[in-house]
Amino acid sequence: MKVVVIQGPNLNMLGVREQHIYGPMKLEQIHEQMKRFAQENGLEIEFFQSNLEGEIVDRIQECMGDAQGIIINPAAYSHTSIAIRDALAAVQIPAIEVHLTNIHAREEFRRKSITAEVCAGVIAGMGPFGYHLAMIGITQIMNEIKAAQEAQKQMQQQG
To answer: Residue 17 burial (CB < 10 Å; 0-12/13-18/19+)?
Structure first.
């Protein structure tokens, strides 16, 4: 099973930008932790980061037929991008949205995520550990879907 991790604008600046808000950990360090989890759990994992909305939409669409789960931090696009929301809805691949900070405790304009509406779950405010929680969550969801598909296949073969 494959998980694609999609990181939105400015996340390439983690560890540099506003450390008092986002912490000192760099994106590469977060990805290394996620790689270890994937290896330990027999998952394939791929990472993508872009500051451009259209590239994020393209990468989500490319997941069709290639990935069984998406972990996404749309960053600022969470609050503004109908295009990313629509792409997540269109591919019908379970997605978990991650935010390093608690968006509900921040500025008013950050409190609503329109992309979250089409995600299986949202993890916010847990810092880099949120990505680990997302890995656990997406693994569980993918395993449940796989088990349901296998059960349905068995029922079709029997009947």
So the answer is: exposed
104 is in an annotated binding site: no
- What does DSSP assign to residue 75? G
- In the predicted model, residues of the chain with pLDDT beneath 70 are 109, 159
Query: Does 51 belong to an annotated binding site?
Result: no
Neighbouring CB atoms inside 10 A of 56's CB total: 26
Does domain 2-158 correspond to CATH entry 1.10.238.10? no
| Catalytic residue numbers, as ranges | 22, 99
What per-residue confidence (pLDDT) applies to 73?
98
Task: Please give the pLDDT value at position 103.
Answer: 86
* 80 in a known ligand binding site: no
List CB contacts of 142: < 8 A, sequence separation 6 or more: 1, 3, 68, 69, 94
